[in-house]
């Protein structure tokens, strides 16, 4: 087979171009009150990864971290993460591209951080998850983040300001890896009839892997769901899950309704 150039101009063998790696790309603290949100930047990195032919990206998840007076944040202190299946030969190029992107596109006054984790190269996956869970409850330091990153075996870097965003970036990767934290960026857009759609039809949506009742009740394929304003999915068991609750009173034929924004804040 002939050799080829990857997107950075590096010569790679044709066979190595087709080895795939599952990666997590997590960023934090890239915005200010007037700029694009961190979620928008994460989406753009994911889109450029695909546009450059490096692999296929998945949805972006938002992970809520501790809100505390000792932690600087723009509005909610949340990290953004996406996963991707990429060519092994492109991993280093993706890291460089994401780092350059954050240095160029992050807002003035922000403290952006980047974490890129190659899942099958993690030296201590449990440590990564523990760090994410800890960041939801405790005030952590950059030194703790870098020490954990060395122990785990992930890329962690800062790209402006104080670089405090490395804490959230590492935490976001851990929470995404754990598979039971975070809301998917964006809302579910599905055609409805009088605001309702069946469970079966909802499961055809590309960002809905499962539908679950918050009280554990069983849902059925032909059940109808009322779609509320900005219906969102959450990450549970590594899946994009749409949570519903039983309709009370006049159902108009619907058995379930998507849960309101206030309830979603718990995820």
Task: Give an account of the 3D structure.
This protein is α+β, with helices and mostly antiparallel strands and 267 residues long. It folds into two domains: 4-183, Alpha-Beta Plaits (2-Layer Sandwich), CATH 3.30.70; 188-260, no CATH class. It is 27% helix and 26% strand. The chain contains seven helices and 14 strands. It has helices spanning 38-51, 91-105, 125-135, 142-152, 165-178, 199-202, 261-264, and strands at residues 4-5, 11-12, 20-28, 55-64, 78-87, 113-118, 155-158, 183-184, 196-198, 210-213, 224-226, 233-236, 239-246, 256-258. It has a six-stranded antiparallel sheet, with helices on both faces. Strand 12 (233-236) and strand 13 (239-246) form a beta hairpin.
